[in-house]
Amino acid sequence: MTSTDSSEADGRTLRPILILDDDRDLAKMMKRYLEHEGWNVLVVNEPMSAIETCLEAKPCLLLVDLMMPGVDGEEFVKAIRKVLFEAVPPIALVSAAFSRPEVQKRLGLPASLGKPFPMEDLKDLAMRFAHDHRKRGDTVPPA
Q1: What's the CA dihedral at 85, 130, 137, 3 to 10 degrees?
Q2: Does residue 8 form part of some domain?
Q3: 5 in helix, strand or coil?
Q4: Which domain range does residue 59 map to?
Q5: Which residues have a Cβ under 8 Å from the Cβ of 14 and sit 6 or more positions away?
Q6: Where are the alpha helices (DSSP H) in 39-85?
Q7: CATH code of the domain in which 31 resides
Q8: Number of domains making up the chain
Q9: Buried-most residue among 31, 50, 67, 78 (CB within 10 A)?
Q10: What pLDDT is stored for residue 56 in this prediction?
Q11: Closest to 30 in 3D by CA, of 6, 61, 54, 7
Q12: Prediction pTM value
């Protein structure tokens, strides 16, 4: 797989936001919204594929669903920390689970979003952790 980094004319390297969620429709909606707001976004629906994608794409932010079949979000966070060590980007849980705040605290994660959430909250989260990787200028309207 080739690198997904892209450079702007001003020399910045824009690393993508990675969404890991088994809900393909929600992940697609999040991707379209964030792309419209100026970020490069990758979506992965399976945790083990997400580890490989993280190694290749070096995302600037991980948005991780907590409740997934097989390897859940908590197990994924533990695994990605072992693989990436100090290079782990900020991670935010995205979940409807009542346990989300406790898992966030237990894992020492800086943020989480409770499903359902307003898209503006998603943008705020991306601005907080990935503002340096947002394209400058006008955004492209969603297709």
Answers
A1: 20
A2: no
A3: coil
A4: 16-133
A5: 5, 6, 7, 8, 39, 40, 133, 134, 135
A6: 47-57, 73-84
A7: 3.40.50.2300
A8: 1
A9: 50
A10: 95
A11: 61
A12: 0.86
